[in-house]
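Tokens for chain A. Residues wanted.
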């Protein structure tokens, strides 16, 4: 339970609580009780009991409950936005668009779509020897799904995973980031308000040690969004217990600007794509490769537009860039900038702290004269920095975009949509937008995920929903009184007939196939025979 600090409640013991801190003011928003690892056996028992009951409900009934969750979110939309702005520091506009709207849309969409996506699916058989069989796919719940969510989108990311997990018939254990526990607590409150069964969704508050304990306790799947280093530890822990996982570990997203692009639009997209949520976004623009003939003008536009951005706390309705989440994150960005400068990069604007606004405010920076020897072009920055590199051609831009251990998202900018799509197909990334950035994440039908250091698996879309189920194949033989040709009773005659069947199906020429079917022991002889056993 959250205890708002302004109410004057006596502070809980430090080991038993997590403080929700406003990154703009450093004030404590709330104190959240920590889940003790010793309580996990009872927590899992409640989850498994609730999941057994929940999975017995018809799929359409489960999806109807998602509408109740949607309505609960809508009823408290202003409160949710308030909590997010106070705890994550982002402007209210971003809290509404990227958090509340996305959660509402996910619940609404899956309530309507999941019954179609999860209904039994017929599997046609092409092989003539299997035509007497009827195949089906069924999508069973996994059981208890553990979701370890990040601080940068503390409401929409967990909601976009909790909702499909529930639709598929699972129970959920959600561990929010220790930096945004209040937002995570809201998820549990909303699920309770929507009258889901008690114990079906439990919010477990704690730090990294709790996440490790949850995995050790043996959930049926783990979904993690966060850093590469933590993701590697989670992958190792899951592998030891053969627990499947979905990992979204960030990106180093490339933006390719061709010479024919609309530079006014492309530069506005670069500034928004690089600095939204103070750059603390896994799909934010970090690397920009622009063709040489327009590089100077494009860079000039980016600098001009960056200088006009208004920094300030979320309490300022005109603020466009809020604080970074913690001073430690700001310092990581400064280290990358300093290393790049030492290697010859030029900061054209920004990169300085704004102590007059607060300890966690950093002016958004535009950097040029960069190359791939710099951390700024290799490691995820996760801060308000865009780096611009002039290239000789689109081919060079694609090569540099693909020269990264990450592969989450990218974009291509051109007035020729056909060429843009062709270039997009050559970029190694889980998603590539042509003439837009990042907004695909708000398209519920679009999958999210990427290769390499960006992780594995998907969220969102039908692919994300299928991460929440165990796929089962069911086969019904429509000739149950007929013994199968391939059962025991092997003879030379059967071997010859089997060989004729192979020829009739796969001989390189139609003449050869027809000849095989006329043999004494042809395909019919293989399919219809009496077994000795």
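Reply:
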């Amino acid at each position: 339970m959250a205890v708002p600090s302004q109410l004057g409640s006596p502070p809980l013991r430090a080991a038993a609580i997590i403080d929700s801190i406003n990154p703009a003011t450093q004030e404590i928003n709330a104190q959240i009780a920590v889940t003790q690892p010793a309580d996990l056996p009872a927590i899992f028992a409640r989850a498994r009991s609730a999941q057994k009951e929940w999975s017995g409900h018809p799929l359409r009934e489960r999806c109807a409950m998602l509408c109740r969750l949607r309505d609960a979110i809508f009823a408290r939309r202003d409160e949710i936005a308030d909590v997010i702005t106070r705890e994550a520091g982002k402007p209210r506009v971003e809290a509404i668009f990227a958090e509340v709207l996305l959660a509402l849309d996910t619940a609404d969409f899956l309530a309507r779509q999941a019954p179609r996506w999860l209904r039994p699916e017929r599997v046609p058989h092409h092989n003539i020897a299997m035509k007497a069989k009827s195949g089906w796919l069924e999508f069973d719940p996994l059981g208890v799904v553990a979701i370890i969510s990040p601080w940068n989108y503390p409401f929409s990311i967990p909601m976009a995973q909790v909702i499909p997990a529930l639709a598929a018939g699972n129970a959920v254990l959600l561990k929010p980031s220790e930096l945004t526990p209040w937002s995570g607590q809201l998820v549990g409150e909303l699920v309770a308000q929507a009258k889901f069964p008690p114990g079906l969704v439990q919010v477990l508050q704690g730090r990294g040690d709790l996440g490790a304990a949850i995995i050790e306790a043996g959930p049926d799947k783990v979904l993690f969004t966060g850093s590469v280093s933590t993701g590697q530890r989670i992958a190792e822990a899951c592998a030891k217990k053969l627990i499947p996982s979905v990992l979204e570990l960030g990106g180093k997203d490339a933006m390719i600007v061709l010479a024919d692009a609309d530079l006014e639009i492309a530069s506005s997209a670069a500034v928004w794509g690089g600095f939204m949520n103070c750059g603390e976004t896994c799909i934010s623009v970090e690397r920009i490769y622009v063709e040489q003939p327009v590089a100077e003008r494009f860079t000039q536009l980016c600098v001009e537009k960056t200088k006009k951005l208004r920094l300030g706390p979320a309490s300022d309705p005109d603020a466009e860039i809020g604080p970074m989440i913690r001073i430690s994150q700001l310092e990581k960005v400064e280290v990358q900038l300093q290393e790049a400068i030492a290697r010859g990069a030029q900061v054209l604007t920004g990169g300085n702290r704004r102590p007059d606004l607060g300890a966690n405010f950093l002016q958004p920076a535009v950097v040029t004269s960069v190359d791939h020897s710099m951390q700024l072009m290799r490691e995820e920055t996760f801060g308000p920095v865009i780096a611009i590199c002039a290239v000789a051609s689109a081919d060079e831009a694609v090569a540099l975009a693909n020269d990264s251990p990450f592969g989450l998202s990218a974009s291509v900018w051109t007035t020729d949509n056909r060429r843009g799509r062709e270039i997009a197909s050559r970029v190694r990334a889980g998603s590539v937008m042509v003439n837009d950035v990042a907004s695909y994440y708000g398209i519920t039908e679009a999958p999210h995920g990427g290769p390499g250091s960006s992780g594995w698996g998907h969220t969102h879309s039908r692919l994300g929903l299928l991460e929440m189920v165990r796929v089962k194949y069911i086969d019904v033989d429509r000739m149950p009184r007929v013994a199968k040709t391939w059962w025991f009773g092997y003879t030379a005659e059967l071997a010859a007939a089997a060989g004729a069947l192979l020829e009739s199906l796969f001989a390189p020429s139609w003449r050869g196939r027809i000849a095989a079917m006329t043999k004494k022991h042809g395909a019919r002889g293989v399919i219809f025979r009496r077994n000795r056993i």
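Confidence is low (pLDDT under 50) at residues 1-12. Residues 35 and 205 are 5 Å apart (CA to CA).
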